[in-house]
Design goal:
339 residues, alpha+beta, Jelly Rolls, Arc Repressor Mutant, subunit A, seven-stranded antiparallel β-sheet, 13 helices, elongated, Tscrpt_reg_AraC-type_HTH, sequence-specific DNA binding, HTH_AraC-typ_CS, transcription regulation, DNA-binding
């Protein structure tokens, strides 16, 4: 069943939590934020608005990552209210996770009121830069993904629509089901805790896939230049220098793309065309070649070499090294170390 049995369930402190006990309201009276505190101020992000407006009365948890492709997420338990959300430079994806059987979800994003029930798994989009009005009846738990316009621009590059609101308009009229986006949002919520060293990389990949899929879902077509994109030699050299100088650190495709002066999308395509392998594969080869050099010409331990070459753990290094060379680091060292 999709019903929620305990709307005031206490949240665990595994992330930055902004929780408040819902105000005692009668079931037939909606909370309202018609005062200027909610709509008269300019907000830079939706999370800030959600924490400090009348939404603060509802239990909520906030997560997100900064990095090269920043995003935010909110898990919130909402009940009856009548609120207005201001224009914010973020596209918001709303995914109901659970709801009571009898509920109502009404919204107006500037083109008239629309009505439906909040059904778990059926999504709704509010494009950046649009004010929206919400009338909600019945308890539900929502997962919100907050996509800054700058992040979408970084991912899409020249494929970024000139008018994002118009491009996503078809996804604002009704709720819709998309297991790929729903599953991606749930996995992104877990990855945003960054408990695993590779979680930021995983989150970056999920985010790129979700943004691209979202535009495809909306039926967006853009006039993009499909000609071969070339990276000048001096920019490829800069990419190599950045990789060499920071090989012991976590290096994402976004960092390499920035060094090349391209969007992530165009860099990945152009780099693969020119170099003959994906940026990830090229970077992994670079790490393994550096590891070979240290195995052959130093007395460093396997753990030290793994750290120096940017691997999160010796076990990860050993697994990748054997996959790419057919031998473990110790076996390779025995055959190749002079003397």
């Amino acid at each position: 069943m999709n019903a929620i049995s305990n709307p005031s369930e206490k949240k665990s402190p595994d992330d930055a939590t902004s929780s408040a006990t819902a105000a005692n309201e009668s079931s037939d009276k909606l909370q309202s934020n018609d005062n200027p505190r909610a709509t008269g101020q300019r907000w830079s992000n939706y999370a800030e608005f959600f924490r400090t407006s009348e939404y603060a009365t509802f239990p909520q948890r906030h997560r997100g990552l900064s990095g090269r492709l920043p995003f935010g997420m909110i898990e919130a338990e909402l009940s009856d209210h009548d609120f207005t959300d201001p224009e914010i430079p973020e596209t918001v994806l709303a995914l109901p996770l659970a709801s009571v059987a009898q509920n109502r979800w009404s919204w107006n994003i500037g083109d008239g009121w629309r009505h439906c029930s909040a059904i778990p798994g059926r999504l709704l989009v509010v494009p950046a830069g649009l004010e929206s009005r919400w009338r909600v009846e019945g308890h539900r738990k929502l997962l919100l993904l907050l996509l800054p316009t700058s992040t979408m621009q970084s991912v899409l590059g020249s494929a970024m629509p000139d008018n994002l609101a118009q491009a996503l308009d078809s996804l604002t009229h009704y709720t819709w089901e998309d297991p790929f986006i729903a599953g991606g949002m749930k996995r992104l919520w877990r990855a945003s805790l960054a408990q695993n060293p590779t979680d930021p990389l995983l989150a970056e990949g999920i985010l790129m896939a979700l943004i691209a899929h979202l535009l495809q879902r909306a039926g967006t077509t853009t006039e993009t230049d499909q000609r071969r994109v070339l990276i000048p030699a001096w920019r490829l050299q800069r990419v190599t220098e950045v990789a060499d100088n920071h090989l012991h650190e976590k290096l994402s495709i976004a960092i390499l793309a920035e060094a090349a002066g391209l969007s992530v999308r165009h860099f990945a395509r152009a780099f693969t065309q020119q170099v003959g392998e994906t940026p990830h594969r090229w970077l992994m080869n670079l790490r393994i070649e550096k590891a070979k050099s240290r195995l052959a010409h130093s007395d460093d331990t396997i753990t030290q070499i793994a750290q120096a070459c940017g691997f999160s753990a010796q076990s990860h290094f050993t697994r990748v090294f054997k996959l790419m060379t057919g031998e473990t680091p110790n076996q390779w060292r025995q055959w190749h170390k002079p003397g």
